[in-house]
Amino acid sequence: MHVLTWHRGIEMLDVCIKGESFGKHSHDAFAIGMIEGGVGGNFVRGSKEVLPACTVSLMNPDEPHTGYAVTKSLKYKMLYVSEDELREMLDHQPIKGFQNCVAHDVDGKIRKLFDALAYALSRPKNSGWKISVDTQLTLTLETLMTRYAGLSVRKAGQEVAAVQRVKDYLDSLANSIALSPFELNSKAVSLGDLAKMVGLQPNYLVNVFRAKVGISPYAYWTVRRMASAKAMLLRGISPLDVMFKLGFYDQAHFIKAFKRTTGITPKQILGH
């Protein structure tokens, strides 16, 4: 269970159960499940539902239901989001809730979003990891609520000053990489921090930043972080030391991130 402690009531569960069943219960948050393998089932709103792979389970807060595995094993991910936090992340819009309790992920997008969020949560922590998680979380929630709860997303405007302020802040964050990984972790910033800094909501900040810059705030910060890595390498700092200063704890992950941004590996950087 991943508990996002910088939010008020957001958790993600990634689990495989074998024959367990859950009696009638409810959650004090929206409970959204992505069935990945096997077949599950529940009893909700007076009906028995069968949930095969590629099914999305949609439960509103305080909605009584049961849950069980139809097959010997059932693999799924669950995302729990409080109503207050959902409203905070999605531009303070009224949340109508889900009209249907089951939907089919016909294009596979919801599965990809859940997988990407789980991956972001599992990565080693650094000064920007909360931005990575929050960006993916915002995209996931926005997609879920527009598809299944009738949410209308505000069109990105021209908040040039806000975008520039976020860019300047992320530039300064990348330039502070000389700090130790432990100091970087203690200074981890979230998407909500960036949004409050410029007076926007998290999902709207992501949308307006992407419209203006072409990439998300986290992707921009990654590019700037790799630029700092390149500068350190040119100063003669070893790739291993640069890796640790950046907050990476896995050499393969660092090399992949560096090559994805620069097109070469850290050892191919040569100063003359």
From TrEMBL:
Coiled coil: none annotated. SUPFAM superfamilies: Homeodomain-like (SSF46689), Regulatory protein AraC (SSF51215). Residues 164-272 form the HTH araC/xylS-type domain. InterPro entries: AraC-bd (IPR003313), AraC_XylS_family_regulators (IPR050204), Homeodomain-like_sf (IPR009057), HTH-like (IPR037923), HTH_AraC (IPR018060). SMART domains: HTH_ARAC. Keywords: DNA-binding, Transcription, Transcription regulation. It comes from the Bacteria. One of its GO terms (molecular function) is DNA-binding transcription factor activity. This is Transcriptional regulator, AraC family protein. It comes from Rhodoferax antarcticus ANT.BR.
